[in-house]
Amino acid sequence: MDTIWLTGAEWLAVLRIGLGLWWLESWRHKDRKAWFERGTGIAWAAGIAADHRWSAVRSGFRAAVAPRPRVMAYVVVYAELALGLGLITGFLTPVALAGGLLLNALYFTLMIHDVAEQGQNLMMALMSVVALFGMSWQTWSLDGALGLF
Questions:
Q1: Where are the domains of the chain?
Q2: pLDDT at 116 over 90
Q3: What would the pLDDT profile of 54-104 be if each residue is shown by its tens digit?
Q4: DSSP 106-145
Q5: Backbone angles phi, psi at 52, to 5 degrees
Q6: Vertex 117: Cα angle to 68 and 91 (nearest 5)
Q7: Is the pTM of this model over 0.90?
Q8: What mean pLDDT comes out for the span 141-147?
Q9: What does DSSP assign to residue 53?
């Protein structure tokens, strides 16, 4: 495959790193004190889930998230950090890409009414699929250096 400036594998690494930076920015801009101490992030999501048009989202949120809002706040916030760091460094990249794809699918499903959120999550999901099936961990990654995957 002919490309300009970088090889195809290097462009896939650029895509992976860019996606990691996007996840890191999602983590960085969160007001962690509000998320952890006041529960604003999960409370906001609970309001959206309560009015969701799909009963599976409402019941799933009540069963999985509502009973443990503080734990789920930590899960969401630190999952975004772990995804960002994993993709930037290329460590456990296939796991990070699959996890990010799952998180984007959950966000997309919860925010089905919000066109702006749909666009962001679809774009991140597409990047994850391309990086995963393009095996973006082969170049500029700890996975490649350590011979993982």
A1: 8-30+68-146
A2: no
A3: 999 999 999 999 999 999 999 999 999 999 999 999 999 999 999 999 999
A4: HHHHHTTT-HHHHHHHHHHHHHHHHHHHTTGGGSSSHHHH
A5: -65, 145
A6: 70
A7: yes
A8: 97
A9: S
Q: Please tell me the predicted confidence (pLDDT) of residue 115.
A: 72
Question: Which pair of structure tokens corresponds to residue 40?
Answer: 């604003």
**Virtual torsion, Cα 83, 84, 90, 92, nearest 10 deg:** -10
* CA gap 102, 99 in Å, rounded: 5
Angle at 52 between CA 48 and CA 56, to 5 degrees: 120
- At 68, give phi and psi (nearest 5°): -140, 65
What lies within 8 Å, CB to CB, of 31 at 6+ separation is: 40
Place of tokens 């706040």: 73
At which residue do the structure tokens 């009963």 appear?
55
Q: What is the pLDDT averaged over residues 115-144? A: 94
Residue type present at position 88: I
What is d(CA 39, CA 91) in angstroms, rounded to the nearest whole number? Answer: 31
- pLDDT value of position 54: 93
Q: Which residue bears the tokens 């019941």?
A: 59
Instruction: Say how far apart CA 59 and CA 62 lie, in whole Å.
Output: 5
